[in-house]
Every structure is written in structure tokens, then in C-alpha cells.
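worker-03 picked up job from queue 'complexes'. Input manifest follows; two sequence lines, order preserved.
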Amino acid sequence: MLSQRIIGKLRRYEGWFAAASAVCIATGLYMGLVTSPPDYYQGEVVRIMYVHVPFAQGAMFAYTLLFAGSLWYLWKREPLVDNMCHAAAGVGVFFTTVALVTGSIWAKPTWNTWWTWDPRLVSFAVLLVVLIGYLMLRTFLDDREKEATYAAVLAIVGFVDLPIIHYSVEWWRTLHQPLSISMRGVSIAPGMLVPLTFMSIGLTLLLTYMIMVRTQMIYLQRLLEAKQGRLLSQVQL
Amino acid sequence: MRFFKVIRWIAWKDLLSEIRNRENISSMFFFALIVILIFSFSFSTDPEVIKEVMPGIIWVAFGFTGVIGLGKSFLAEVQNDCLEYFQMAPIPKGAIYLGKFAGNVLFMLAAEMILFPLFILFFNLNVLDKLPQILLILVAATVGLSALGTLFSALTVQIRAREVMFPILLLPLAAPVFIGAVESTRGVFNGDPFTFYSDWIQLLIVYDIIFMVVSFWVFEFILDY
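worker-03 finished. Artifact:
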């Protein structure tokens, strides 16, 4: 069984990912919180960037993975790929939520508001809603193959829509009022770039590790269900 | 040619059943009417305020109307096991989607055509000389909403908690339709020249094309399971 071999490989190598991500995150946090310089304008507040930006990147990475996996699933119908998509969506919800929450905490001292209708914020909020909708849709279906197909279709439609949502919101805002604070044009000093890179790599590894673990969990869960004969009885119906 | 014949027959069948029982359009119409009434309680009737919030009210009402009408689009097929005949029939699956989609666009437009004069009447809008622009916005936004709504109607029709899942999936992904429609409608009500808001109509048309193509492609996967 190919999928069993892959699951075995995942179990074997997941530890390396966990260890590497722990090392990267520890280094990045130390450099970011202790050795990196405070920002000229924002002071010490800027240090939340080392958490916020990598989490946002991770969320987008998770959704890209979900999209690629969904296309692959519709093409090849490989249940393990569907388990990976399911895992990526769940982990993506976590990363998106953390990115939104840390962003909100960062926005309070810098922009003096918890929330603003900035295009990036709105598209991230929509991303979160779509991912939660994706997970909800999965819980409401009993037939596993149907669940996987429907979920893949939803992921693809949502992924196609996200850039349109982003640009429409950007347009909507810029036509009404120019953005008072923009992230664009802020170049990053080398002293900040190094810890940020460490955190990005570390959190990408953490994301990969979480998806690996979750994929195994979902795979085993499905296997157990099949062995309990629930799938069999569905077929007989 | 067969492809277009299938589209025509499916749209025709939906229209015929709608003409006979008038379920969809009447429920859409009354629902939107109630939404307008409720909104009129929540804002003052100051003409300036009305002008500011009116485009939003119209599109919230039409959006919910779409949720009511589009959500039921595939329900009739399930009740009589017609979905299985769709699956078995040797016809292109994309044509089934386009047929249902055409029917839905017609229903929604019909409901909107009855509602829009009422809006003008209730809120004293002075827009009769801008009818072509308004029609263009109505059609562009309705096509976008129906393209996604028809797909999600097929997606949610066979699952539990259908009534909850349909708006949860549709409304966030239809955000560009609402933004484009509200902004262009505001342009019309403000009396701006057409070029001021033609970008929004372009956005609506781009959205329409993208989602008709994507939905047409993925519909096959939905119907197969």
C-alpha cells in the first residue's frame, strides 16, 4: 500500500521537522526579542512582527497547500491527499487566527485601533471564514468520498476568489480614502531580517510538522472507521 | 448544438414549474419586502441618510433574496430523485449547470424587477433617467451571485444543515459582488458620470466570467458524487 508507506515515512521523519522548527524558533525568538534593534518609529512594539508576519505567511502557505492538494485530489482521487488537505485546513485556521489576533494586538499601539478595514485585514478575515466554512462542510457529510470531492471543490473556488476579494477591497478602500498607514515602502534593516527569516523558516517547519501529524491522525481515524465497518454498511445501503 | 439544447430545456423546465407554482419568486419577493421594511425602521428617513445607506440596503435585500431563491435551486431535483437522472443522463454536466444557472438568473432578475420600483417608490429615489445603468448593474451583479449560488446550491443540497451552510459558503465568497454592486449603485444615486463607477461594473463582469468558467468546470465533480 502506497499510502501506508507514506504514512510510515511521515511518522519516521516528523521528529526531525519538530526538532528543526524548535531550534529555528528558539534562535529567532532570542534574536528577535533580545539582540535585534528596536524600531525607529515603533520602538519595542515592533517585536511582535517576528510572530505576526511568519504566522501570516504560514497561513497563506497552508491555503496554497490546500489548493494544490485539492486539485491533485480531483485529478488522482487519492484519499491520503484528501487527508492532507483536511489537515492543512485545520492547521490553516490556527495560523490565520493567530495572525489576525497578533495583528490586532500590533495595530492597537501603532494604528491606535484594534481593527481597520484595510484590504489585507479583510481578505485575511475572509480567508478565515472560508477555511472554517470548509471544515464545517466536511463535518456535515457522511460519505467520505463525497466529503472529499465537495471540500476540494470549495477549496478551489475559494482560492480563486481570494485575489479578487483582496483587490476589490483594496479598490473599495482606496477610492474612499487613501490608506493613512501602509506597510509598503518600509524596508527592513538587516538586524531585523535575520531573526524574521529564522522565525519564518521555523514556523514553516512547524506548520509542516503539524500537518504531518494531523494527516496521520486523520488517516488513522478514517482507517479505524473503515475497520469498524461503518463504510461497509454505507456501501450496502 | 445539443449542448445548448440541454441548457435551454433545463432552464425551460425550471421556468415552467416556476410559472405553475410561483413558489420561488413570491418567497423571494416577500422576503426582500420585509427586509426593506425592517431597514426602514433602523434608519432615520432623512433624505441625506437615505442617500448614503440606500445602495447598501438594496444589495443586502437582494443578497438575502438570492440566498432564499438560489438555495432552493437544486432542492426540487432532490425531492423527486431527479438528481440521479441528471447524473445518469448522457448529457454534458456543464450544460446542466448552465441551464440551472440561466433559470436562477431569470428568477432573481424577475424578483428584482418587481422590487426595484418599490424601492424607488418607498424611498423617493429620483433615478428613472438612469435606468440603463441600473439595469446593467442589476444584471451584472445577479449573474455573479447566481453563478456562485447555483454551484453552492448543488454543493449543499445533499448535506445536513443545508440552510445554514449555503449562506455561510456563498456570502463571504460573493463579497466582490456586493462591493462592486453597492459602489456602482452609489455612483448612480449620486448622479456621478458613468466613467466614475464603470470600474466597478468591470469588476462585476470580470467576476461573472471567472466564476461562470470555474463553476462550469467543477460542477462535473459535484454531480458525479
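worker-03 released lock.
The first helix of chain B runs from residue 2 to 21.
The interface with chain A takes residues 148, 151, 155-156, 158-161, 165, 168-169, 172-173, 175-176, 179-180, 183, 199, 203, 206-207, 210-211, 214-215, 218, 221-222, 224-225 of chain B (CB under 8 Å).
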